[in-house]
């Protein structure tokens, strides 16, 4: 059996250590569960989109786990398409790649192909086109392995056909393109982070998993109503050939920090651009 652990939204920084106390219990729990691979589904950092020191510090923390780790970027790691203050660009992507490795990747584990996608480039530009071409080739070349995607933003909140949810999920146009690929290649698992919630649904043959955050929770004043529960934790994938057991689990020792209490310290409001 091969064990993969998904963690998400740790939001670590050497200068803004509001959620730092949750790293040690998370690292201990990971060591106790002896994974063969750890997947971080984004927002590793508080602000590597602008702070090189955040990227370097968090890369060291991930390396300290002593097991193979791969990551996909979150909005706080590389910015995002259309953001007026932190647009995803070559500089930010290069910073992520220097410290954390490729922003898209694949790993073959027994009868499964695990594919990491950069959701922060969706919505325009040559990076998105290159990723789409790469993704289709990765699935076409899977040699019969079952397919699972790992990304930061979920494809949708309530429905694959929903309107634009803004900050919270992939926008409708790139979502439609991904859903077309998902259905064509029968992707069985789509695991994401970003929402700081613990939730899973099965729809049209695909198991959608919202991996819980390990850093902090988001209260009702800062997030719209959505499914699942505001709980910290991690996800364990036990793979045996083509079989897989997926379980979202609590992590003992994590403190329920709420970003609502410190948001103006951690993410100060920026002046609107003229």
CATH level-1 class? Alpha Beta
Q: Note the beta-strand portion.
A: 15-25%
| N-to-C span | 56 Å
Largest sheet descriptor = 6 strands, mixed
Query: Which structural class fits the helix and strand makeup?
Result: alpha/beta
In the CATH scheme, what's the topology name? Answer: Purple Acid Phosphatase, chain A, domain 2
Ranges where pLDDT stays below 50 over 5 or more residues in a row are none
Helical content stands at 25-40%
Structure description:
This protein has 274 residues and is α/β, with parallel strands linked by helices. The protein has a single domain (2-266), classed as Purple Acid Phosphatase, chain A, domain 2 (4-Layer Sandwich), CATH 3.60.21.10. It is 26% helix and 20% strand. Strands 4-5-6-7-9-8 form a six-stranded mixed beta sheet, covered by helices on one side. Strand 10 and strand 11 form a beta hairpin. The longest helix has 15 residues, at 126-140. It is globular, with a radius of gyration of 17 Å. The termini are far apart. The mean pLDDT is 96.
């Amino acid at each position: 059996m091969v064990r993969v652990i998904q963690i998400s939204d740790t939001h670590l920084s050497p200068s803004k250590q509001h959620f730092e106390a949750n790293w040690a219990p998370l690292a201990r729990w990971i060591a106790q569960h002896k994974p063969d691979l750890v997947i971080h589904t984004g927002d590793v950092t508080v602000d590597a989109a602008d702070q090189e020191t955040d990227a370097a510090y968090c890369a060291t923390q991930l390396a300290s786990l002593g097991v193979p780790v791969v990551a996909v970027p979150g909005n706080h790691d590389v910015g995002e398409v259309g953001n007026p203050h932190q647009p995803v660009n070559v500089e930010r992507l290069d910073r992520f790649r220097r410290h954390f490795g490729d922003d898209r990747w694949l790993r073959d584990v027994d009868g499964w192909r695990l594919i990491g996608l950069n959701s922060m480039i969706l919505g325009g530009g040559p990076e998105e086109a290159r990723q789409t071409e790469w993704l289709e080739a990765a699935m076409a070349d899977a040699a019969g392995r079952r397919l699972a995607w790992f990304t930061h933003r979920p494809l949708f909140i309530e429905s694959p056909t929903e309107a634009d949810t803004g900050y919270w999920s992939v926008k409708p146009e790139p979502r439609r393109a991904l859903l077309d690929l998902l259905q064509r290649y029968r992707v069985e698992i789509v695991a994401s982070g970003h929402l700081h919630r613990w939730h899973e649904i099965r729809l049209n043959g695909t198991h959608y998993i919202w991996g819980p955050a390990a850093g902090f929770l988001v209260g009702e004043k800062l997030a719209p109503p959505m499914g699942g529960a505001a709980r910290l934790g991690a996800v364990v994938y036990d793979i045996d050939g083509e079989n897989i057991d997926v379980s979202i689990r609590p992590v003992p020792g994590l403190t329920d920090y709420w970003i609502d209490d410190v948001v103006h310290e951690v993410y100060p409001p920026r002046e609107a651009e003229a």
